[in-house]
Amino acid sequence: MTENLSPAAAAEVDYRVLPKISLHDHLDGGLRPATIVDLADGAGHTLPTTDPAALGAWFVESADSGSLVRYLETFDHTIAVMQTADNLARVAREFVEDLVADGVVYGEVRWAPEQHLRGGLTLDETVEAVQAGIDEATAAARADGRDILVGQLVSAMRQADNGLEIARLALRHRDRGVVGFDIAGPEDGFGPARLADAFDLLAQNLFPATVHAGEAAGLDSITEALAVGHALRLGHGVRIAEDLTVDFDAGLEDGAALVTCGPVASWVLDRQIPLELCPSSNLQTGAIAAFGTRLDQHPFDLLYQTGFKVTVNTDNRLVSNTTLSDEMALLVDAFGYDLDDLLALTLNAVDAAFAPLSVRIALAEAITESYDGLTG
After folding, report:
1. Which of 158, 180, 159 is nearest to 169 (CA)?
2. 25: part of which helix (H) or strand (E)?
3. Which of 154, 172, 207, 253 lies deepest, with the highest CB count within 10 Å?
4. What's the fold here for domain 7-337?
5. Does pTM top 0.90 for this prediction?
6. Is 242 a catalytic residue?
């Protein structure tokens, strides 16, 4: 472990130099505003403004509504410019370039191919285009001495009826860049059971799934993600905290609170099912409304201190105007974390990655060595 890495020392670190793992990051939520402006005219799409800075601000303001439904509406503008192979490849390339600039060494980019067919592409062609952009960016990074591994998480839209087709798509590309499956879109009222046949097919083929749950919907959505979706990770999963009872008057040493887990929380905790927590996004969408409206009221620390396998993620870098470095800085400021905490959270993400064990072991060793080097 690292030594003498107090919260004050952590706050002085340039977080961009810390090696990071990105597990929950949407392709259509990570475009550069200037790219959207550049591509919109050719796509025949009208934007709220053609000034990149003003457009970036518009996305954040529109998403900061406390409603997941309103939050999702902002994606109409990004998806509109992602309907050709060239545009998809460019967006994917720049997406990875921005990860590299933020110090990410392993990333999983999730996106829904079925939303990118308006220009005549087939599902397979969309996946191939995104992979081409990923490959170009990773090769350029490697040539510059900055190694990064990036895999695709193919998502099915939960309100549509294409789950089985998208699951088959993911399986066709499992050895060509796709590392996992997800479902996205409006969570409340569109549970994983709607796509049960897709999840069953994936499980039968030993292909990993992460499921958005415990964000706009509560504990039942988490149970369904685990029981029906065979989820190995929970996308967000933050509302698992609603199944915790905290007793501040338990008489424990040092005034510590006694935390009691309900049945769903116990299952997730005992089996160390990873939570893909996205602090800034959770504030924007109202996912933590039961706990508060400020980052220091986010149950992130409660879950971390209780022993849940929590990971730090951005969700959508454009609409939250954030990076993984920013999210780390916010957590240090809100909860007084030191670099040992940031290392522990990063290693949680390594463990949770949909990568071979040999890759995860190498990542863990390299990341730990990098953190150790910060103290000489």
Report:
1. 180
2. strand 20-26
3. 154
4. TIM Barrel (3.20.20)
5. yes
6. no
